[in-house]
Amino acid sequence: MKFFAKKLIAVLALVPGLAFAAEGGFPLERAPERSELSALQNGAKLFVNYCLNCHSATSMRYNRLQDLGLSEDQIRNNLLFSQDKVGGMMTTAMRADDAKVWFGAVPPDLSVIARAKSSPAGSGADYLYTYLRTFYKDDTRPTGWNNMVVPNVAMPHAMWQLQGVRTAKFVDEADPHDAGKTVHKFAGFEQVAPGAMSQQEFDTATADLVAYLGWMAEPAQNTRKRLGVIVLLFMSVFAFLAWRLNASYWKDVK
Known about the structure:
- The protein has 254 residues and is α+β, with helices and mostly antiparallel strands.
- It contains ten helices and six strands; from the N terminus they run αααβαβαααββαββαα.
- 24% of the residues are buried.
């Protein structure tokens, strides 16, 4: 049992999301619920414009966006910017070797990122919502950007033109566990240049993008939930009929 526990701890330490939560890092903020089709359509547009340049979603076809109420013509005219076909996978033109040189790591596939980032600290949507909203300008980093959820992140702030440029403020406070030491504590963001959106507009847009990533991780989830309700109703009716049939069979015996 002790051997299994040690192995489990070792595995969890290798998972960035879980390790970060265990360390008590930056708290995750709850992602707003954005399940309406208009929000998911806006999220798909943001994904194609700001994420698909570097990240792929190789488990998703463009034509699956028809489930969000988009026609093939709308997908072709508004969401296809290369020679990709409507029935093709969502892939990036960036070569993995180039990405590793430019960013130090190959950008991960985002097909199921909303499910992969779920942890005891919060859902995958909470992680992504907080992560995408906590970039700040840091000239010491190769890309010029840093992040509160993933310190020293290799990814630049893809949507900085929408949010604007912010810096992070830190203060030194006395360590509550050691009077002779100080801790470097986050004290908030400072807006140094405005973006194309207000903070509220950017938060809503980010919530739409996160909602789309959650939908993309399981496009059939709404169908699954609807079928689940139907199955439960059927089982309830069947259980009632079985109960009454059993009572009818045994009434004379009793």
